[in-house]
Write a structure and sequence with these properties.
The structure is a homodimer. In chain A, about 65% of the residues lie in helices and about 0% in strands. By secondary structure, chain A is mainly α. Chain A is elongated. Chains A and B meet through helix 8 and helix 9 of A and helix 8 and helix 9 of B. Chain A binds a DNA duplex through helix 1 and helix 3.
DNA sequence: ATTATCTATAGATCTATAGATAATGC
DNA sequence: ATTATCTATAGATCTATAGATAATGC
């Protein structure tokens, strides 16, 4: 699973694999307990990597965990991009983004549990859902679709609300999570100035299907342009 | 500054003082870096308390930091209670609560910086703003002031939005924070189903003054009943 | 007499590095 | 020849406790 450019030679691939193994172990730990006080030895064992190798890749434990969060955010962003491809209406994009994120608590539990522990510091990040949502909020504010004075403030509310919903869902084994997500999406649309009846409608539209026959979202852009409404 | 019942005798008072010194030091650390990997020795030094005394009061570092967060939440809750005393309209209470919380980033920086690091796990807590907000949301939903299907979900959005605003304010030295808080309050009211024009009005009403000539909020309840609207 | 505090320390980690080993590039 | 990995370990913490000291209760 190459994150960016495939490595030139076997050396670099092996190096990248070690690095990824460490990040993967860190992600597991972040998702499970969120307790970053585990020893580097424990992390290396979990990654099935020699202890000393750690320092070939990261300066400190904190640096690894920070990288691991970014790694999860990037995967999150790619997953959302894939699903929202070809959807133009900012209101629909925001509502789907919220509901798809709630779904990901089941389909991508590791990512969402990491956000539960570490998400608060990344609401205004340039990784993950935030930059995409900020785009939609800005577009919507400009076009008049949304009534929003400052997209950054709207992003604070959107991102925070989503984390709150996630916390609710992950800590209390409560009722129907799809229903809860739709209710949240509806509230967020109203917050953004979408008329109440329309917010209700949009928040209950069928979610877009997983758009890919294949699993690599970076390799196949523009696939869904056919579905573009205009 | 006794948190609950004043201690019976000097022994208990001294014991309570040591405990409070440790909590106070932990609160400082949580507010400054949020890095809980500091040694117990460092914490004890900061509290000006003998190292061994730590174990008279807490089982572990994590237990102390958890207590410190609760301590800050309680102070937060008391501060908000004091300011909202006598205000009956749930919409007004919610809007004021949001704006007052934003103000507290200046007036009570320690509390709000702690929330910035640790708030996400306490959106549905029974300490701090959350239980008060949940009351208002439930009252408003029942009376028809709000259009909200599930108060817990509304609380997720309210609490999360507030943390998002706090993060925005504390990490980016951005523009007018009162203005931002009013914009956030307005959005939240719309989210709760308050008509847009009314949300705008309520979110810009003058904040209630600090109601106390004296500083002990626990000792003087019901002071502001005079201002009760009805 | 009782209880909390403090100082000192044993034992258990934990980090960072040095040096040996293994794999690949050229 | 080069580079990353691994093993082993020195030195630096760090935690938890034992025992001495100080303060208060009765």
């Amino acid at each position: 699973m190459p994150t960016s450019a495939p490595s030139i030679n076997r050396f670099e691939r092996r190096r990248a694999a070690t690095r990824q193994a460490l990040i993967h172990a860190a992600r597991q730990i972040l998702a499970e307990s969120g307790d970053t006080s585990v020893s580097i030895q424990t992390i290396a064992d979990r990654a099935d990597v020699g202890f000393g190798s750690f320092y070939n890749h990261f300066e400190s434990k904190a640096a690894l965990f920070d990288e691991a969060v970014l790694d999860a955010l990037d995967e999150y962003g790619r997953a959302i991009d894939e699903r929202l491809e070809g959807i133009g209406d900012p209101a629909e994009r925001v509502a789907f983004g919220v509901r798809l994120s709630a779904r990901m608590a089941e389909t991508h539990p590791e990512i969402m549990r990491i956000l539960r522990h570490r998400g608060l510091g990344h609401i205004h990040s340039d990784r993950g859902l935030s930059p995409r949502a900020l785009d939609d909020l800005t577009t919507g504010a400009t076009s008049g679709r949304f009534t929003v004075s400052d997209p950054e403030i709207a992003l604070s509310a959107l991102g925070g609300s989503l984390l709150g919903l996630l916390d609710l869902h992950l800590t209390r084994p409560t009722g129907d999570s799809d229903k809860a997500a739709a209710a949240m999406a509806e509230m967020i649309l109203r917050m953004l100035g979408v008329p109440a009846h329309e917010a209700l409608d949009i928040a209950h539209r069928p979610l877009p299907a997983d758009g890919s026959g294949r699993a690599d979202p970076t390799a196949s852009p523009r696939r869904a342009d056919l579905r573009h409404p205009s």
